[in-house]
Amino acid sequence: GCTKWVYQADGPVRSAMPVAPLAGGKHAVMFGDQTGWFYALEAESGKQLWKVKPESHEATKLTGSPVVHDGIVYVPTASWEEGRPQNASYQCCTFRGSVVAYKIADGTQVWKTYMIPDPPAADGKQVDGHAELAPSGIGIWSAPTIDTKRGRLYVTTGNTYSGASPNSDAVVALELATGKILWASQTLANDTFNGGCFQRGGCAGPDADFGASPILVEGAGGKSLLLAGQKSGMVYAFDADHEGALVWKQRVGKGGINGGVQFGMAADAVNVYAAVSDVGRVARAQKGKVDARPSGVDPNVGGGLTALRIRDGVKAWFAPPAKCDPARPMCSPAQPAAVAAMPGVVFAGNVDGYLRAYSTRDGKVLWEFDTNKDWTTEGKVVNGVKTRGGSIDGAGPVIAGGMVFVSSGYARNGAQGGNALLAFGID
Predict the structure, then answer these.
(1) Residue 57: is its pLDDT beyond 80?
(2) Segment (H or E) for 52
(3) What is the dihedral of CA 303, 156, 149, 308, to 10 degrees?
(4) Which 8-state DSSP code applies to residue 197?
(5) Residues with Cβ < 8 Å from 134, sequence gap 6 or more?
(6) Paired strand residues for 186
(7) Is 43 left (phi over 0), alpha (psi -120 to 50) or beta?
(8) Which residues are within 8 A (CB) of 302 and not within 5 positions of it... i.e. 6 or more apart?
(9) DSSP 8-state assignment for residue 281
């Protein structure tokens, strides 16, 4: 847990960081930030090797983790622009989600592919006196999946901000060498959503896009399947050898804007494991009046972990959420964080701060641990920084070297912030 070096990025970082070998025995560690910059550093020293902006749009943010293969790093792009139309004077919208491929050695761009081929243009609609620009949106919020056998790269996509596109709310296959889009399997058409929908109207979608990476499983029931979990509360299996044809689908949650499968599933040879958010909200009172806008989290709503058989989508088991006891502010049983699996165990974190280890056989809780505490007073802080745990959301547990690593603290969406990185022994 010792700090070796520190590099100051230009903005908040929420992506995972892949490491790739360089000439001379060195390595590059790569990541993006929420101001749209992408970085490659020398892993041994923290020295910046190169830095680029994959997309010039002012609202670009990079949340999906990059992936590396054969000297190339593949970077997905997303955007803050979805919220810009809350400003009535904002003309919606111009962002287009993309994947950009770079040479790891020097940052040279190899190819770039937009999910919307042409720049948004006026479509004849008027919104608050502005001509709407469409189609727009389709950010890629999660890490792409590499398929070396077929020479492909798969991404799951977000909703549109304006207009409609066959590539929104979809699993999209790209040619690994060129970035050419080979096929797209859309699960929810016309899911148009932006921050002005509640004020202006005119939006057709529920904002139930994909935020979790697709999982490629070879030889499942004689097929090679792509598994994808959606904010709608649905899990899908697509045939990787037949242009993404739907093989099965199964509901695991209610779904919603912050519902369903949010940040990631996990799979083994038999099952895919999907935790759901389905977070509830509570209204807040101000000077005797109730403010109906979303505020804190509901301590009694959300969560649940489901195991589905990969070959046919049948539910193997369901582990119900553990309610907050006692109920308290910023506590929720919702489970939006990505999950992680190893032989016999699947790990899932909660907004309430608990990390739980479930048996992959029947879903029983093997052990649980409350990370939501003041770790400074526990006397276990390695680097001497005042440390507080909180909600587990976004990034999931990492399993490596006989250890499980978990970050605790996530202040968005009414949850509990924190700054703790915890390491557990598996045995």
Answers:
(1) yes
(2) strand 48-52
(3) 20
(4) H
(5) 93, 120, 121, 123, 125, 160, 162, 163, 164
(6) 170
(7) alpha
(8) 276, 277, 278, 279, 280, 321, 332, 333, 334, 335, 351
(9) B
Q: How close are the terminal C-alpha atoms of the chain, in Å?
A: 19
Taken as a whole, the chain contains a residue count of: 427
Helix, strand counts (H, E) of the chain: 2, 35
> Look-up: residue for tokens 């792009």?
77
| Alpha carbon distance 284, 288 (integer Å) | 10
- Judge contact between 74 and 33, C-beta under 8 A: no
Check if the beta carbon of residue 310 is closer than 8 Å to that of residue 271: yes
Q: Which residue has the tokens 């054969």?
A: 70
Burial of residue 379 (CB within 10 Å: 0-12, 13-18, 19+) is exposed
Determine if the pTM surpasses 0.70. yes
> H or E element: which one contains 198?
helix 197-200
CA 29/CA 372 separation, integer angstroms: 30
**pLDDT band (50, 70, 90) for residue 285:** low
pLDDT tens readout for residues 72-118: 999 999 999 999 998 888 999 999 999 999 999 999 999 999 999 99
Please choose, from the candidates 16, 12, 3, the residue with its C-alpha nearest in 3D space to the C-alpha of residue 340.
Answer: 16
State pLDDT tens for residues 179-222: 999 999 999 999 999 998 877 776 878 999 999 999 999 988 88
